[in-house]
Amino acid sequence: MNVLDYIKDNITYLDGGTGTMLQEKGLKSGEPTELWNISHKQDIIELHKSYFDAGSNIITTNTFGVNSLKYDDKTLNELIVSAVDNANTALKLSKNKQQKFIAFDLGPTGRLLKPLGDLDFEDAVEIFAENVRIANKLKIDLFVIETMNDSLETKAAVLAVKENSNLPVFVYNAYSENEKLMTGATPEVMVSMLEGLGVDVIGVNCSLGPNKLKNVIKRILNVSSVPIAFKPNAGLPEDINGKTVFNVSPEEFSAVIADTVKCGVGLVGGCCGTTPEYIKCLKEKTKDLKKIKETEKDITVVSSYMSAVTFSDSPILIGERINPTGKKRFKQALIENDIGYILNEGINQQEKGCHILDVNVGIPDIDEQEMLPKTVTALQEVCTVPLQIDTSNPVAMEKAMRIYNGKPMINSVNGKKESMEAIFPLAEKYGGVIVALTLDENGIPEKAEDRFSIAEKILKTAESYGISKKDIVFDTLAMTISTNKNSANETIKSLKMIREKLGCHTSLGVSNISFGLPKRDFVNGAFFAMALENGLSAAIMNPFSAEMMKSYKTYLLLRGKDENCLNYIEFAQNAEEMSVKDTKIKTDSSKDISLQYAIIKGLKADAGRITAERIKSENPLDIVNCDIIPALDNVGRDFENKKVFLPQLLMSAEASKSAFEVIKSEFCANNSTKCTVVIATVKGDIHDIGKNIVKLLLENYGFRVVDLGKDVPPCDILEAVLKEKAPVLGLSALMTTTVPAMEETIKIIHEKAPFCKVVVGGAVLNPEYAEKIGADKYSKDAMETVRFAEQFN
């Protein structure tokens, strides 16, 4: 029986922790667990066997920390081959009769991907692919991608598996207490993206105990149509008599997990701190429960890296202004590579209430295959709403879809055979909601019935590619009323037929109806209202059109979709401010924005340009103190109050860095006016994402940062602190097994450099544990580290 057949009908038991188990067998502080695949083969075999003997159906190979960033090709191959051999030996030795499977484990690279970090997306794909290609030749049953806290890195790992293997792929993400990934993705975002990519199981692992992750599981259950896995930690670590222990017992752990099984979770196990005893207890607690079959949720949803937009009864607004058609200034921006102008168009539309932004850069004067993915990436740096990738060029479409962080809208496919053959394979591979135009080789039918027939043909063809109708949104094509008096009626009729008879969502480019007529907004607003009343799900429109927004706001009001009329009242109060200028957008170019605005919105190029203009006539320190630092503080406060999240914080820091670089280059002065902070990831830990985030923010607040890198021995950290006479040391650790190295470092710093205060952070820490290992401060995030360091100036 293969693993996918098994999990359909059975509660499936996974394994538990590795590092904490190996520590009991003598694993030294900071020693990579994967090296034991060769040096302590018998211990690894016994570990795997103990989980099989406890009742696990699936165990993961000891390859979480194996990748080409750490090891050369020869060592990489040896570690992987040995790990898989150890797992298979354990499977043969275990006498338990349950179905047994071996999953090859892929852990995170430890690096943050661009634009938030320095690792290129394709480089990340290749790092994962190297492991997959080796493992795929060995005796394994599936791939598990686990402990991922970034949606884009998750996507890179999934593509690496899908492009190099036909084996099933399970994905487990690590959520924080705010129920988001480190880089901002919600459970709904991850489900939409991962289902689009075609993964077989979606799960949650690590980070927290079962009680604190229950609501994340509940949210995933509400939207997922695929099996769900749950592998939480045994609570949080505590130091008791010098030993690291976790604060959730096997009984308490199993009781919480059993409750999630009753709600529909199908695969269960543990992560940090859990042992075979936990798995045995979990199996006993759930032995009388039946597997609940997954149900198709039939949800049409698109997502960005941090927000999901679901098509429902409330109409969705798709901003139309990132499109060169009829826009001379936009064409100029494309030709001049003026990304700042394009980003401002996106920000302005998002602030006007658009739920999705259409992105079209197709003009003859540029290389669309280069410009489209570049524009999509840049927009995702500063906008949080999903994007609609709009192009007739399949190559440009694939490049943009591949790099897109989330599940995009795809604009478009039509009933022509060549169109469907070009676009459907892309949607099948990368995921997306496809806008389907009701035209074919014979053009756009005049009658609604013929457009409906094309829609049926598109759905049937999509089904042959494994694409569900929930991922098709039909555009019944608004044609200008000036040349055909019945065009509006036929468009509305076909729209209503598709909505009622096929059960599919619909979209329209509303403004096409008025082409060639005066006062086009009058016609557009009335037609929009007609379409909404007949089942329109989404409209590609200009959010700066007063008439269009009137139709939208009043429709929501009259249809009971505006609680206490609050949105309409706010709109009406602001209506007087809307003028002819608004239809053209108040900010006609990026040159009108302020430096603080550029930093807050993460507009790097504009921040640098504005600073370069201002230092010609202003004191650079005044710019720093009156604009740059206040802007950073604004974003920092919003981050602390959970109004913005890590990506926005980092992009604002990058924008301020652009401003600082201009000041430094012009005046050859170091902007660091504050104390020195030494930072490092402790011995044995190669994950430096958190450390790098802290570094970026500290530098932009004017601190001098000495970054020692990752996997740094205590003696090297002490040497740097003494040399720099640094009053603050920041230490980071992601892995449970490296916390002892952190404790050792803190001890030596306090003994040899008592003037230095130590601030610590990382996924395995909490305030109580940090205090017990001797830290002076625990920081839950980078901003808290900045606030702590500011005390020493």
Explain briefly what this protein structure is:
This protein has about 800 residues and is α/β, with parallel strands linked by helices. It has 31 helices and 25 strands.
Estimated structural class = alpha/beta
Percentage beta strand: 5-15%
Query: What is the CATH class of the largest domain?
Result: Alpha Beta
Q: Kindly report the average pLDDT value.
A: 93
Distance between the termini: 65 Å
The gyration radius over C-alpha positions equals: 28 Å
Portion of residues in helices? Answer: 40-55%
Number of domains: 4
Count of DSSP strands: 25
Envelope shape? globular
Q: What CATH architecture of the largest domain would you give?
A: Alpha-Beta Barrel
Q: In the CATH hierarchy, what is the superfamily of the largest domain?
A: Homocysteine-binding-like domain
Read across the widest sheet, the strand sequence of neighbours is 1-10-7-6-5-4-3-2
- CATH fold label of the largest domain: TIM Barrel
Largest sheet: 8 strands, parallel
Number of helices: 31
Low-confidence stretches: 579-589
